[in-house]
Amino acid sequence: MGEVFENSVIKEIINRYKFIWSIDYAMGLLEWDMETYMPKEGIIERSIANRHLSVLEHRLLLDPELVSLVEKAKSIETLNDYEKGVVRVLDREITKAKKIPESLIAELREVTIRAHEAWVTSREKNDFSIFKPYLEKIVELEKRMADYLGYVEHPYDALIDYYEEGWTTKDVERMYDSIIPELKSILEKVMSDSRYPKCHYLESYKYDITKAVEINNRLLDILGFPRTRARIDVSEHPFTINFGIRDARITTRYEGYDIKRTIYSAVHEFGHATYELQIDESLSGTPLARGVSMGIHESQSRFWENVVGRNFAFTKIVGSLIREYFPELKNFSDEDIYYYINTVKPSLIRVDADELTYNFHVALRFRIEKMLIGNEIKVSDVPDIWNNTMEEYLGIRPKDYKSGVLQDIHWSQGSIGYFPTYSLGTIISAQVGYAIEKDLGKKLGDIIDSRNFAEIKEWLKRKIHRFGATYAPKELIRRNLNEDVNPEYYISYLKNKYL
Amino acid sequence: MGEVFENSVIKEIINRYKFIWSIDYAMGLLEWDMETYMPKEGIIERSIANRHLSVLEHRLLLDPELVSLVEKAKSIETLNDYEKGVVRVLDREITKAKKIPESLIAELREVTIRAHEAWVTSREKNDFSIFKPYLEKIVELEKRMADYLGYVEHPYDALIDYYEEGWTTKDVERMYDSIIPELKSILEKVMSDSRYPKCHYLESYKYDITKAVEINNRLLDILGFPRTRARIDVSEHPFTINFGIRDARITTRYEGYDIKRTIYSAVHEFGHATYELQIDESLSGTPLARGVSMGIHESQSRFWENVVGRNFAFTKIVGSLIREYFPELKNFSDEDIYYYINTVKPSLIRVDADELTYNFHVALRFRIEKMLIGNEIKVSDVPDIWNNTMEEYLGIRPKDYKSGVLQDIHWSQGSIGYFPTYSLGTIISAQVGYAIEKDLGKKLGDIIDSRNFAEIKEWLKRKIHRFGATYAPKELIRRNLNEDVNPEYYISYLKNKYL
Lengths: 499, 499
What we know:
homodimer; mainly alpha; Neurolysin, domain 3; 2 domains; three-stranded mixed beta sheet; 20 helices; 3 strands; about 5% strand; globular; metal ion binding (chains A, B); metal-binding (chains A, B); Metal-dependent carboxypeptidase (chains A, B)
């Protein structure tokens, strides 16, 4: 795009922002290292460094000169889209930093450290009462957070917007209202279709980890994972982190059984990494050099994981690698592998859920969060509501807290308002798949068969990635997919695939 | 030691310093990652982050409130040793930061980036004239640096003190005057002793790298490398870096031949790591939580590498591992291995030099640096002086620049005044060995035979490590070894060992 920042106020803002960017960059590396290579006891001083760097970043963000430059820029009428983006993103961050008192941040950090321990113990002992007081405190603090941030209709709006700029409780409700009944009907039909197995031999097949590492690397190479700008390592929970736009780190894990788990983690994280690696170079080191929201980020990871990765054409590639590295599995046909990778069954654990049941899990959490933040229910009501909703949605009921209300780490970390972005991303991923096929005039399966993944990446770059955070999520989709976020594509995708 | 900071001014200084410490911590991790795992293109944005973090650190160091607190603390008479140490270290840093203009730092950074490239090309083409103008510029900037820093007798004093607090050109001259003639005489005798081979079969023996990795890990475990606070990785040039006192990272390299190189790199770096890992916990996050100087640091690495590592008792351990992992070498006796590890021969390359010839290499660089900074010679004179001095010291003469004046990276990095700390560290390492044997009433060889390395580490912790930067180098040695730095121990050590 060449040089995109011309206004002198914006240039001055970006120069000052580079210090904040650098601290952010460093904190990213601290986090990556903590999850991958850090010796255990290093955590003590790592936390101290982290805390001080956060405070420094906060101070730099509220630096009066930066704040007044941003204020000044808001009234300039001749800014181009990128310049407007810089102002929008920084104004949002400064406003948040101003509204939320440091004491609340500190209190939340304090309680979440202890809440995490309590959550672990609570799970181990299958005793919700251990975690309950912490969750109560967290909900209380999140309500205060919502009050500080402000909202028009529902306090939960403030929390959603924190993760997904411009989205509201109503938006999320509308989204679930349009997909839940459809998902139910598709799921019912698939459950009576014997082609989709409820369990599969390969789920319990024990694999040699060194071979799985090679398979992941082969697949990443096929996808065009740029090794001079990216790497894959191992961590307990798979994640992606980018330092700038020329250094992306993804991780996966190797459980030693059910090999699709490690493969599809890697493909998922590849999607996250590719997003930020394809941001335009002219945005490097600016507030725009990031994924614009959790939902858009998740749309990219789930696009590669599901829309591409679980496509028959892609599972053929996976299957050929599995047969090559594990000759004892040579009798598994492409179809066997496809149905192994696309097993469908109502299950209790969100992270193990298939494409058809996944959103029920997320919708359940949204329902509960909204009622908690809206004072409609108490924390003590949550386990029963969880179990009843699970039965209503998927016809199954957790037998213990670990497979029910205590399964996710999010609440113990104080993340309330985050879950809906998982569904949003999933829905957008199908809309992206539709738009690609329409634009390129080809079926995704054919592109995958030809292994021309560069064509897909090029499209994603042109339509979404290169802009970074230039446009707010809704505007990004509207401008580039020529339509608002529309769950119908997701439903058609599932119908086409499963029925 | 318990809580050692009681004065409220000092406590306030330390609180403010924690931000500087955190930036330093992060920059350490950035550097470690750059040398180990960073994807190649990451360097572009890594440099930007680094530059901004350096500027932030510089600003925080010159923050008027911190500066005035340190000024205030200088006049408090009731400070304990640790509190005085905090004032001494920070006063030194602030003074340097004040004296050296940012423009000089920037110019030096600028020229060294280009100088490095020129140095590489100059080596490749065996053409000193390519590097010459850069070295001229660097020498000019270093002279200006010396003028800014100030000195009493010789401008080179200012540069030495930069790396080795309290040391002067005279100190270094005195050191070399007392060791060079002795070293010459020992070397002459050893060269006519057929037990010390000039080359050894194992130098060209090609090893399997995965086995060498295991040997290094076995050795580190025997030495008590604390895996919950430390790790070893691979990099092009071996180095050690500590983040705080609970996370040390060492590296080594695997050339695939002459296995002692990788093993003794690992043992050398183990010495560096152990120093900072054994700093007292009460100093964590303060200006004292670091090795006090390059010389003291090098004394620790060379103590483990040479005084312990090249001791017959230790080479027996190395030998047993070599025979275990490479059964085809099972006929090499403990004596064979000892003489392999202790090969002596005049050679042209410093980093490959043995214990007897090493200091000639460093003395040569010191001589040249002193004359350059003192305006006694020009850069164009350096290659001839280098070659003549090499002939005078070791009786050999480089045939090209790569094995002569262009062999070290240091000058291209603007490091002038650094080399003498290598000799200083080597000398102190023998003095430490002497003090341990005297204090514990045991021979080092016996302690090594019993594999009770904890006893050695405990002694080092008590006498040197735990203090971090509390005492300036000379005072640290005087207080804890009950004597000034004394090269006689080094000479006796060599005589005992080689004659």
